[in-house]
Amino acid sequence: MTDPLLAFTIFALVTTLTPGGATALATSSGLHFGLRRSVPLFAGITTAMAMLAALAASGLGILLLNIPAATTVLKTAGTLYLAWLAWRVATAGAPTTASRPAAPIGFVGGFAMLLLNPKAWISTLSAAASYAAISQSPFVLAGTMAGIFSVCSVIGLWLWASSGQWLSQRLRREAHWHWVNGVLAALLVLSVVGIWV
Q1: Model pTM?
Q2: How far is CA 16 from the centre of its chain?
Q3: Least buried of 13, 98, 111, 174, by fewest C-beta within 10 Å?
């Protein structure tokens, strides 16, 4: 049990640390609002990740993704939502400008972003298929995967938001803020491209 559990933990850590929609949002939130005000976003993303991992391990996720219409609806809704989030990030100015969002994306926004992201579904489904040897029981597997993905998600989100907060202390000009916001929005758009490829 130790080897597949360790391998899965490494997989979950790499999956949650690599750039994508959640990490771009965490960085943007840390950049504009700091770590403390980003906690609801973290909680939403982490809760959705744990739920997807549990669904994948229990086999329910595979049923959903085997229905072509459901997959298309998920991809379309995910694309529209991530595009809206990218627009919101791209148009955010420096914290002192009127274009800055009034409040960070909260629990519901983070939960919806991850739930509508087919990349997250694919990651959790491939993890459930690859690391099923962790436990013979689908319920134990679901709980283990949900727990490990949650911890790794919190670590990854905290690191990305911390880097955003660190960066916010170094940006001096409005043009710098627009450039960083543009890069983060582009990362969100690239995560949308990954949904369809």
Answers
A1: 0.78
A2: 7
A3: 98
Helical spans, DSSP H, in 91-117:
107-115
On whether the CB atoms of residues 24 and 191 are closer than 8 A, the answer is yes
Estimate the crossing angle of helix 118-130 against helix 2-17, to 10 degrees: 170
Distance CA 102, CA 99 (A): 9
**Domain spans of the chain?**
2-196
For the chain, helix, strand, coil in percent to 5 are 80, 0, 20
Residues 6+ away with beta carbon under 8 Å from 196: 75, 79
CA-based torsion, 96, 98, 100, 106: positive or negative: positive
> Which one is predicted more confidently, 92 or 42?
42
Which of 14-18, 134-138, 157-161, 190-194 has the largest mean confidence? 157-161
